[in-house]
Amino acid sequence: MRFVILAVTLLFLSPVVFAQAKENGIQSIIEEVIDERTTADWRQLRVSIAINGVLLKDVKRGRIQILQAEDNLGNDLKLEEFNEYNKDFSIFETDDYRTDFSIRGTNGNASISITLNLASPPRDATHIKKLKSTLELYIPDLDPKAKIVLTGLSEKLNDKRYGQRRKAFPFRPGEPFPFQKFGVSIGMGFSTFPKFKGGSEPVIYAQILDKDNKVLDVILTDKKGNEIQARSRGSTEDKTDLEYRFHADPAAIADLVVYLKTDMAIKVIPLDFNDIPLP
After folding, report:
1. Cis previous bond, 122, omega within 30
2. I need a labelling partner for 260 at 20 to 30 A (CA). Which of 45, 61, 249, 266 fits?
């Protein structure tokens, strides 16, 4: 509880700029260093970085990897578990607490906030000598081949190939999928799922054949354009046959959106800082 109170308190302090870097019009600023090496129960070091100069409304996912982290005594501060946890592209959070990725502000005026978790340095370390990371931003509008959109989804689910009229789901090997685009095959299904306390709720299924492993995520959008995330997902071991389950009313759904990883749609931002003072 002490840690949570400390973190929330620091969020309300005016940011102190420790270091900054600028490349290709994108500015990255280290705003906050939280050093808790003297805390007996949970020693850790966290570095908060703000990224400015990106049209945030166009960024759909992000991924961060720490390449190098070293204090002035030569100790390795990189946490492999942090990189493992963040190895996949993830959504941005918009709540008041700083997760690995969070958004402050709205639309094009917003900045991206990233929190890097590092190993706790010894007490006699005075600064982070080197901190090098790579931030990847997924911006599908940069490439027309980075997104597949199936519109009019509520009508499609009433088609005889889908919904409760289907006797079998998922699609079987060799069975043709209704939609193919950019090397990806898409099938849909609809059923109801019993609730724990009685009654039922609708479930929308999306099955994706992705032989080139380029599907980044699959979402639904409602008629206001809001994203609906899958409640659960699964795949074969080689990740070529994917299944996404959404607990959503088909009547409220507008589109199915499949995000695809392409080189043009991923903007790579190097984050390279030297001599960051420790509080």
Report:
1. no
2. 249
Instruction: Please state, in angstroms and rounded to a whole number, the distance separating the CA atoms of residues 32 and 48.
Output: 5
The C-alpha atoms of residue 175 and residue 135 are separated, in whole angstroms, by 40
* Whether residue 134 is found in the same domain as residue 152: no
Q: Cα(140)–Cα(41) distance, rounded to whole angstroms?
A: 43
Looking at the structure, tell me whether residues 126 and 218 fall in a common domain.
no
Expressed as residue numbers, the domain containing 198 is 147-260
Which of 278, 276, 227, 223 lies closest to 253, judged by CA?
Answer: 223
Residues with Cβ within 8 Å of residue 228, at least 6 apart in sequence: 219, 220, 221, 222, 246, 248, 253
CA 71, CA 126: separation in Å to the nearest integer?
Answer: 8
SS3 label, residue 58:
helix
Q: pTM for this structure?
A: 0.78
User: 79 with 108, same domain?
Assistant: yes
Q: How many domains does the chain have?
A: 2
Which amino acid, 68?
Answer: Q
Give the pLDDT confidence of 90-137 residue by residue, as tens digits. 876 654 444 445 544 444 455 677 888 899 888 899 999 999 999 898
